[in-house]
Amino acid sequence: MSWVSCSHALAGARRRLEWGTVFDDYQNPTEVAPSQTRTAPERLPLKVRRLDPGLPLPVHARPGDAGMDLRAREDVVLEPGQRALIPTGVAIAIPEGWAGFVNPRSGLAAKHGITVVNAPGTVDAGYRGEIKVTLLNTDPTQTFEIARGDRIAQLVVQRVAMVEVQEVEELDQTERGDRGFGSSGRD
Ligand SMILES: O=c1ccn([C@H]2C[C@H](O)[C@@H](COP(=O)(O)OP(=O)(O)OP(=O)(O)O)O2)c(=O)[nH]1
């Protein structure tokens, strides 16, 4: 290798180190700015049982999406202010140390006022029943119709700590202390 090609190779290697590398679709390397540097995401195998084979599996629609869409197993009509417990046709086995969180979809919320009453609904690692979504129509006038197969919410799977509670007489001092509930003002 000549000195010129050697110095080019070194410069390229240094640039790659400085700029970091991400993987589009986890396969094609793409250079990005340092502020965007990240490593490939942790992969978590998740066993899913389809209780309704006519509905697709919940999957991340695009690389980088946090949630997997949950679909309605039944047609439902939500009158203004009405809520319903909607079956999704899937049961899952989340590994211990993780949990699923049923979150609203922002498009349904912004356009139609549709939210999840208990957002985020918590799906425990030990739960093997059908995942259900408690959807609420917050719109004061518009009825919202859900058809079987519609995407109604999204499931985000996250790590959770198994906490060991230790009772104490005093807690350590912090800058915030017991101030909360708007104590820092509005702006
Ligand atoms: O939006 C949700 C929330 C919960 N669940 C399922 C999974 C979860 O593991 C189980 C119990 O949920 P949670 O602990 O929130 O219910 P609870 O009202 O405290 O009932 P339980 O006494 O059964 O724990 O119900 C859903 O399918 N969707």
From TrEMBL:
Domain dUTPase-like: 57-185
Cofactor(s) needed by this chain: Mg(2+)
Cleavable signal peptide: none
Keywords: Hydrolase, Magnesium, Metal-binding, Nucleotide metabolism
Coiled coil feature spans: none
GO biological process: dUMP biosynthetic process; dUTP catabolic process
Binding-site residues, substrate: R105, S106, G107, N118, T122, V123, D124
InterPro entries the record matches: dUTPase, dUTPase-like, dUTPase-like_sf, dUTPase_trimeric
Reaction catalyzed: dUTP + H2O = dUMP + diphosphate + H(+)
SUPFAM superfamilies, sorted: dUTPase-like
Molecular function GO terms recorded: dUTP diphosphatase activity; magnesium ion binding
Pfam families: dUTPase
UniProt superkingdom: Bacteria
EC number: 3.6.1.23
Primary role: This enzyme is involved in nucleotide metabolism: it produces dUMP, the immediate precursor of thymidine nucleotides and it decreases the intracellular concentration of dUTP so that uracil cannot be incorporated into DNA.
NCBIfam families per the UniProt record, alphabetical: dut (TIGR00576), PRK00601.1 (NF001862)
Protein family according to the UniProt entry: Belongs to the dUTPase family.
Name used for this protein in its record: Deoxyuridine 5'-triphosphate nucleotidohydrolase
Gene assigned in the entry: dut
